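Hi all, a correction to my earlier message: I attached the wrong file for PDZ domain-containing protein. Here's the right sequence:
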Amino acid sequence: MTTQKNAVLRSEPFAQSLSQSGTHALTLTPPLPFPTPTLFSPHASPALMTRRRHRTPRSLLPLLLLGLAVALLSPRPAQSQSQAQAPRAAKAAPTANATTTTATTTTAAPRISSSTADRREFTTSPALSTEARILVQLLSQAHYNRDTVRSSSYIEVIKDYMSALDGQRMFFLKSDRDLFEKKHSTSLYWNVSRLGNIDAAYEIFSRYELRAHERVDWIFRNIDAALADLDSDDHHRIDRRKVEWPDSPAEADSLWLNRLKFELIAELLNKRSPEKAAEAVRTRYERLLKNLAETETSDVGEMFLATIARLYDPHTAYLSGDTFEDFNIQLKLELVGIGALLTVEDDYCVVKELVPGGPAALGGELKANDKIISVAQGEDGDFLEIIGLKLRKIVDQIRGEKGSTVRLLVQPGDATDPAARREVLITRDTVKLNSARAYAGLFQVPTGEHIAAPSGDATDHSPSTARTAPIGVITLPSFYGAAEEGGPDGEENSSATHDVARLIAQLQAQGIQGLVLDLRGNGGGLLNEAIDITGLFIPRGPVVQVKSYSGEIRVSSDESPTIAYTGPLAVLVDHFSASASEIVAGALQNYGRAIIIGDRSTHGKGSVQALEEMRRYVPQLARSGAKTGATKFTVQKYYLPNGDSTQRKGVVPDIILPSIEDHLPIGEAELPRALAWDEIPSTFFDGAPIDDNLLATLRDASLARQNSLEEFDYLRRNIDWFKQRQDEKLVSVNLEKRRARRDEDKALRKAFLAERKRLAALDYAYEEFWLSPPEERQTTTATKNADGTASVEIDEAATDAADDDALLAEADTTANVNDASRAEPANDSASPTREISDTLLASDGTEDSPASDDDDDLEEEEDDTGAYAKVDVHLKESLRVVADVIALGHDPSNWIHNAPPLTARTTP
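and the right structure:
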């Protein structure tokens, strides 16, 4: 069967022009073929995508322009009854290029005073209006799941959009939802798809802003009373995401009173005085109002259009021009800028860190903690003061073309005089984001530990007497790569496959006898990278099958006969391993090439997305230089070589380890409107799953360790603690009860921490390997010696790049976006099992909890400067499993296949 690595997506027949009362809607005739199928991460912001080279047939461009002209010149549909009730919306209807609305409602919301907040006007730009229409038309005509969404389905957008604004359902009232659904249910689809009119988004946002102002006024009036009443037996529900909005203002006040007490108690437990606790809460809600005031039309529009996109499935999205720009940075792991991590503190732009190897770091004039006051373009441009600007606008000022210069007027972070200023000139250049690249470790692992031979006789080789085997670990955060072959100016772009191959070569030079590919927290990436990485371990053959809306099935294969590594292999996964990660793990499992180890299952994302740039449909906007957005939408489902789908069910590991993540509401099956599971016939491939007898031997050995080793006992007790807290939906707002619970938890955490430090001393000796040069990362070499001591060489001039992700994840900042705009998920921190103490050191609130209880006396003293320095129960067990394979491999009678299933066969 002829296959191709990058399956070409053929365009499905597009629906005929929608019409109503003889009026034709915009008919999309996109260039064929569609953009490359895409495997996006299901976590956080959009992750990396698949790509494929394609050309735009010139013959279709006249049809495209003709379709746009017809849409722009055709008469508009008659107003619906709901439109007639909204004068501003009706007034905007005659033009599809710009819509303006004053945020008002036909029915006054309860208890909203006219003095609560100034009413703002939102104006839809011609570009946004056009993109709204294109989005709806594209989804209704080309989405894989298009048959399930009708115009009547758009009533769900109201609730979903309100939830996007008010996730804990505390600000809106149920009457707000009823009002908006009644007003917009019959007209929303037609307003957006035919007119590009998104006035409903502005109206709902304005109601949210008014409710927020009203609630903050209420908080300021009642904070002292709440502070004086912390001895009641009331409780606060910490997760209201699936609860209906309050029925009445009185019910809302009751909910907010308990939440206010909850926040005050959290501050008091962090050793703040009552006055300081109240001040911290006031500051938090002042910041909320400031953030709302800075929200612009584009922000509201993007959130609303993204909500519409999610009607089709959870992985479909609308990306604004800014978001799309950041998306491309994630894809390439590089940007053109100065290389600085920026944040906003009290209206000032503060340099949090410098990206190692970037222009700012190499120049040496800009320092961490410097405050940027003004920005000027070129060597003689005028300075623009940026105090009080949104971080996104600041980033736009600092980024620019490669080779251009930017001047920064900064207040030095170490200056004693607040009036001190220093001018810094930086030449923009390509900044490599090496902290997200693959890295490796070499571990010395005892072999033969707790292995049951096929005869059933048990052997127990302690680490002190058993010989050790060098086993490599390669950690891959994502399937990254550049959009084009070769980088700027002929430079070679880094890719996941290229980096993994280099690390394999480095580890083989050290004589490794086994390898673990760690895909935990890897949410996906480029499809061709997943195929190529699989090809590093197998001869040529099918890797993934894809099925389109029409039922057409295509097979994508690895075409290279070269095998980079032929020895025993394990793949370590968790619930956050998704999409491209599942393709690699599932394919290697189908071929019997690797044993899969980890959580009960992977994430379960079995769909393929395409990325469609709006500029392809609006060439005049592209020519103007304006940023245009993009639509990410599902176009295919993918299947493993044996025909199994990973959708919803994921890849089930051969050896399952206990995990906190098994008790979290994560995974594809938990997401709304996820596609259904199905299967297709197997394609031919030269492989077979690992023999059941061998798997049984390896499982028995692992289970024996899970039932006997103290580190698993430690892990299970952590899981039990977590489950107990997870089941507690209500938290007391009684200060003394909370203080007693805090002391109880602190004692437990202290005991866990002491045990964890003791377990860390038992970890295997290891050495780390990095691809980036020393000046571009902090840790050059981290080695744990056999005696448990650590040797670490550190580049003192650099900073730990792992902190970048933590800063980006802070909930209390407006937008912790760095100059690099690296917005990928924080993979290393995504797994509670990987760093179990993260859960123990968290507060008992949700993501919007104001603060964690004070743990200053529980500061961790163990050395954790190395990537593999912390206790990692799952990784350690995966190393033991590979060591078991190595030990069993010396007895040929253990293998039933002609060649060992965990060892790749060579191709003649």
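Sorry for the mix-up. The radius of gyration is 29 Å.
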